[in-house]
Amino acid sequence: MSLGIPEKITALLFDLDGVLTSTAVLHRQAWRQTFEAMGQPFSEQDYLAHVDGKPRYDGVRSFLASRGLTPPEDEVRRIGDQKNELVNQIIDEQGITPYDGSVRYLRAAREAGMPIGVVTSSANAMRVLRAGNLLDYVDALVDGNVITASNLRGKPAPDSFVEGARRLKTAPENAAVYEDALAGVKAGHDGGFGFVVGVDRGHQAEALKAGGADVVVNELDELLS
Questions:
Q1: What secondary structure does DSSP assign to 36-90, as a single string?
Q2: What is the mean predicted confidence (pLDDT) over 123-150?
Q3: Which of 59, 158, 185, 195 has the greatest number of beta carbons closer than 10 A?
């Protein structure tokens, strides 16, 4: 079965929230509740423009800067940690649901013998992968904890994807990136990755394409043939 990628691709790197699982919706809910508790209205566009795909504290800084606010670093961390506690609570209450099309694609990739990595800004990736029964598909994981410990720049910088490719023992030009966030698509494009797949979960197909996606799909299994 074809995975819908160029022949030169020897490894696959997937974002987690919004690509493999529906947890992006839960993160958006947690961000909205966190910022609105501060008296700052938070829209879908705010999520896409300022926090989607970025490390947690970077998201806090970006959103508040858009409101003309520059809080001290301890306040940035307090807000980010509050959001993280809230999203964990929401996950406990609502559970984790992998996208069916993504599971089918992961299964096909595994059957094809393709190495699979997950690259995410989330510090909760292991919990999400375990709850979604996805761990068996993952050969390498670069998450928020690795990004912090290794002093990597978060998306839209390509550092985390480059580290994912390194862990799968392949060069960026021979790896494919799968992303639903504009920041992640930019990271894949700017990092010189061999193929960038945009996953449109938020009616932003044109923006994903403009940001560097080679192809845009609504579900990953659209790539299978």
A1: HTTT----HHHIIIIITTS-HHHHHHHHHHHTT----HHHHHHHHHHHHHHHHHH
A2: 93
A3: 185
81 as an active site residue: the answer is no
Domain range for 33 is 24-94
* The one catalytic residue among 17, 143, 180, 221: 17
Note if 17 is an active site residue.
yes
- Which amino acid is it at 14? F
Q: Are residues 101 and 175 in the same domain?
A: yes
Structurally, how many domains does the chain consist of?
2
Tokens coding 139: 């050969």
Side chain identity, residue 108: A
Closest CA to 50 of 63, 31, 41: 63
The residue with tokens 């996953």 is 199
Say what the pTM is: 0.83
